[in-house]
Amino acid sequence: MKLGKLIAAIALVLALGPALARAEPVKIRAGWINVPASLIPILFVKPGVARHQGVTYTWEPIYFSASGKQIQAIATGELDIAPLGFSTVSIAVQNAGLNDLRIVADETRDGVEGYNTVEYRVLRDGPVKTVADLKGKVVATNGIGAGVDIGMRAFLAKNGLLDKRDYTVIEAPFPTMAAILADHKADLVTATSPFKYRPDFEQLARTLFTLRDALGPSELSFWTMRAGFLKEHRAAVVDLLEDYIRVLHWFNDPANHAEAVDIVAKFTKQHREVLDGWAFTHKDYYRDLTAQPDMKALQNNIDVQVKLGFIKSEFDVNKYADLSLVKEAAARVK
To answer: What domains lie within the chain, and their CATH numbers?
Structure first.
């Protein structure tokens, strides 16, 4: 090869180098805790719905037992998407120092009119008839400072009841709430899907109030990412969000209900009959089909946290959101 052609070939390789590097799919690691509240580990089970997965990005779901562990993982660079809720995003910023954390897409919402909401239940024939009857009693939550815990405290405070002064709080996993109520270990328990739909729980207890009563609409879960990752891999993230929106449409389409339930049942190893009556229906949590969070509701949720003393200072959610990517992705889906 002549020197001139060799130089030209080298120049071409050098010029194409960055483009070739960018052509490699971007690895995106996403945390999840519970299915089907989160669709992350089953997002791409149905072939042909997503258009960019495996082309511009690859997808790695990673299980976590709690949101706090996801915060730690995204802080150390071991995770790219951390689904958080209104009760944890402010803690991630203020306590973990993640000032570059950005809300990028919605996941699930409680309290949207016509859809599921968390219930706070008492014994159907028990001594608690009104909220005032909880004075001196024991209430059960899944964890101090969790979203449903904040909602419970907020509603009780509106009715003049304060923690430690007027009632005692105990912690218990959601699956054990019915047993705790039946055994009189607590006088008020937290009922969430799918456990609230168990016939024995519905026969045992009645709803005293709901999370909707306490907070109105609540941002239970949304995707967060770090600003540096978004800047470096914006195109791939937009492709992911486009695929995510397409998958949301597929799972929530009544025509796909039976297959969607089968996918969840197989993954969670539950009988499909347990899921069929509520998953991806109005008995389920609301999922926005454009994947855009309700920022007004989120701000209201966090303002309640401030009033209850769970976070140390005011928190402006709009400073920690970049919805431009999901809006661009939603515009592609017709």
So the answer is: 22-111+218-332 (3.40.190.10), 119-215 (3.40.190.10)
